TrEMBL record:
<feature type="domain" description="CheR-type methyltransferase">
    <location>
        <begin position="13"/>
        <end position="250"/>
    </location>
</feature>
<dbReference type="InterPro" id="IPR050903">
    <property type="entry name" value="Bact_Chemotaxis_MeTrfase"/>
</dbReference>
<protein>
    <submittedName>
        <fullName>Chemotaxis protein</fullName>
    </submittedName>
</protein>
<dbReference type="InterPro" id="IPR000780">
    <property type="entry name" value="CheR_MeTrfase"/>
</dbReference>
<dbReference type="Pfam" id="PF01739">
    <property type="entry name" value="CheR"/>
</dbReference>
<dbReference type="InterPro" id="IPR022642">
    <property type="entry name" value="CheR_C"/>
</dbReference>
<dbReference type="InterPro" id="IPR029063">
    <property type="entry name" value="SAM-dependent_MTases_sf"/>
</dbReference>
């Protein structure tokens, strides 16, 4: 009996479509998602299908191959979702404590927000550095893989009407200043003040393929790593190790396991969250 029109594709067909699409993204745009967790990729691709009103991943592939804008949009969708300022108060509280532990000893500390979740994450760090009196001598390197994510960061802002919402998150993170004072308001938008933005350097950088680019006193990558498969995760953790100064701090998404190759090089800083000091 012929398959019913409109029926969902069999799982093996969908898996083949995903494999072909990921190969197309690599060949057409140079971005390699093949070693990402397949469940995460599948979830994001299904979201892209719903958003575009498409029936199959093959139809999405046709758009991606022939329409550069569709390709750029899909690359953005497969990346880290943009974050709001202080959207994770627990992470911000821990980061506030970490800054005082790992940065003051360095004359010119560098922080790497690897595969940064947009301006919201970078602005959160800039405000924390200001409150810890470290902002003037600390450089934030915020890297993203796609050109679209880089463009979004360069033109970032958020609706001024959401200031009170973000201020509540800020207070839950331990902040006590007037949150709105960190922003310029105009045209219904809020943008971080230039003095704070000036210490943020945005760059396009691909964790999957690029080599170590600098030495950092703090590396934070808590939002991209959950999407990486085991081999890619090991590759990226080695990259971070090669880029982290001794006694620097690494903030990641999940605890290091005892059998991780680099686990012996790190000392846990918190029993609840996976933040580590490099000791070897």
């Amino acid at each position: 009996m012929a398959a019913l029109r409109g029926a969902a594709p069999a799982p093996d067909v969908e898996e083949l479509e995903i494999a072909l699409l990921l190969e197309a993204l690599l060949q057409r745009y140079g971005y390699d998602f093949r070693a990402f967790e397949r469940a995460a990729v599948r979830r994001k691709l299904r979201g892209a299908l719903r958003q575009r009103g498409l029936a199959s991943i093959s139809a999405l592939q046709e758009q991606v191959l022939h329409q550069p804008q569709a390709g750029a949009a899909l690359l953005r969708a497969l990346g880290v979702a943009p974050a709001a300022p202080f959207d994770d108060p627990a992470e911000a509280r821990q980061l506030r404590a970490v800054l005082g532990a790992c940065l003051p000893a360095s004359a010119a500390p560098k922080v790497w927000l690897a595969e940064c979740a947009g301006a919201g994450q970078a602005w959160t760090l800039a405000i924390l550095l200001q409150e810890e009196r470290l902002q003037a001598r600390t450089e934030i390197f915020a890297t993203v893989a796609s050109e679209q994510a880089l463009a979004e960061a360069a033109d970032a802002g958020f609706p001024a009407a959401r200031l009170d919402e973000y201020a509540a998150h800020y207070r839950r993170s331990g902040g006590s200043a007037r949150f709105a004072d960190y922003f310029e308001l105009g045209g219904g938008r809020a943008v971080l003040r230039p003095a704070l933005r000036s210490r943020i350097t945005w760059a396009q950088y691909n964790l999957v393929t690029d080599a170590s680019c600098n030495e950092f006193q703090l590396i934070v990558c808590r939002r991209a790593l959950p999407d990486y498969g085991p081999l890619l995760r090991r590759r990226v953790l080695q990259l971070f190790h090669d880029s982290l100064a001794r006694f620097g701090v690494l903030g990641i998404d999940a605890p290091l396991r005892a059998d991780d190759a680099l686990a012996h090089c790190y000392q846990a800083l918190d029993a609840q969250q996976p933040w580590y000091k490099r000791i070897a």
